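Supplementary Data S3. Sequence and structure tokens for construct A.
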Amino acid sequence: MTKYRTEKDALGEVSVPKDAYFGSFTSRALDNFQISDMSAPEEFCTALGYVKLAAARANKKLGELGAKEAKAIDKAALEFIDGKFDSEFMLDVFQAGAGTSYNMNANEIIANRANEILGGKKGEYEYVHPNNHVNMAQSSNDVIPTATRIALVMMSKWLTAELEDFIKSLEAKGREFKSIQKVGRTHLQDAVPITLGQEFTAYAQAIKNSLESLKEAISALKQLGIGGTAIGTGVNTHPKFKDTIIAELSELTGEKFSKAPNSITTTHSMQVFSRYSASLRNLAIEIHRIMGDIRLMNAGPRAGVREIKLPKVQPGSSIMPAKLNPSIPECMSMICGQVIGADSVVVFAAQGGQFELNWYTPLIMFNMTMAVRILENGLRMTREKCIDGIEACEAEIKGSFDRSLCTATELVPKLGYHEVTRLVKEAMKSGKGLREVMDDEDRV
């Protein structure tokens, strides 16, 4: 049977599991917000721990926090970052806005662990208090957007690295297939000649374009509003706190963060997040389009386009023997749909600020970190299990090309549009190739 301790807050007494490192605020949040099984991702927890650690170090340097308290908070925050308390940081993503519950969950865990380090008991806060010490010079309103920025910057390193590998795979296929001439199509109809290699090279360039936009959005995330506290004015902070904590965060993370030009703006404007989310959405749109082409080129094996062959990854049917489906592109397309949907949530949330605060930040954080994670994992899956193993069906490609009339456009400068139209109609009527019709009429 679980044993409890009693803590007091502004609303009265609260029962808290006796051995828990979290406290009264988290207990109330757990009771209030039982909505889903979705909680903060590991990367956000780590980033939040960095903010708490950097704040303690900054406040100590500025003479605002005693050496004994700072040392204990430092140790507790490092343990928080290492994941020691992950099982106690489990609040629902759907909660009171601005992320106050997340902020206080971390404050309480770190405070109770710091008190334990100093010989105190959980819930008594004899040496270190969650609000007075761990949350010193901070507010949920600047902590949560800052931790979200840091989490996305850290996660983006993995995503951009995977995108670069994905581009290399597409370019490799472009080189491999550079001499394979095929029918180019517009409106799903035969158009003009192209090579299979040119198609894959063009896919690579489209992803490159998306990557450049993403990198620009990442750069904007590195401007932090931490130190603005409640509404961005910096109430209850040392005049040098902003510069000091941002320097600490840069050192801890290895990223070059800077001070936002206006920290009031960073509490109510979520434009930097909607911009980043839009870059993920645009990337998802490009990937989805490419996956559609790959599925069509793979269609068959006997009664479809059949220009490429995808690696075999799993049986395609529970009822049709030996059927194979484009399973990897299908999965990647689902991921793209989810990312596009997540962007819609971010757009909705970014409009939600009133006056000096946007209180949708937990929703923004969850959807954006989720989008980054599934994109990274999906790109790796698609590269390793699909793109790298694609084979060209050269005989089928040549047969389709020879039967097509896609070379007609190249004759227009010599023979004129209407004359070539007549020749194409004759070829279609007779079932002959264009060259055969021209041979018959001594046009070549």
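Construct B, processed identically:
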Amino acid sequence: MHHVTLDRWSRGESVLHRRDARVKVLALAAYLVAVATLDAGQQLALVACGALLAAGLLASHLPIGALLARAAVVLPFSAVFATISVLGGQPGRAVELVEKSYLSACAVLLVAGTTPLANLMGALESLHVPRFVVLVVQFIYRYLFVVSEQAQHMRLAALSRGKKGNFRAAAGALAVLFARSEARAEAVYRAMAARGFSGRIPQLGTPHLHPADAGFLVAAVGAAAIIRIAAGVFS
């Protein structure tokens, strides 16, 4: 389960783990803008973006192979648009779409894997992302654990009864899973309302920016800007 793995990764210890969540979000935004605005044919710039991402992966102490494998989940979606570009006579653009989507997915996973969700959501709210969006993202992430727990219970129950899987059984199990998950989600909401939940999840502690955080932000944004400007100059 990807969300469980990310939650475990975010509790690690590294240079990136210690950086303030707000500077990591801003650095991610700068990197994504740099990657997205590169023109077709600027392969050297994409290689430089990949090198910058590789430096972040090494500094994070995350399992690189596992992260790269999980980022590949975006490839089937980008492959659809890449196929359309190939059929339209633009094979270079097809390669560019795949490269950009994969680099972006790796960068997002890198930030999510080095930042606990509570800190990440607090950073988004501090950067004035609409509170409704932040709350929806946080609830979706947390309710994934509810669905996962129910799925594990049902799987163990089915195995203990010696039932074999087939299409009808899988369809019925899926319906039961969502029914149980909905009931569990209602119970969770009632428990939160009883404890005074008013539409905002409070953050524990107040984050403070340190000189190392400012240096990281300047270095990350500066590197992304240099790559993008250099790509425009030498193209």
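The mean pLDDT is 83. DSSP finds eleven helices and no strands in the chain.
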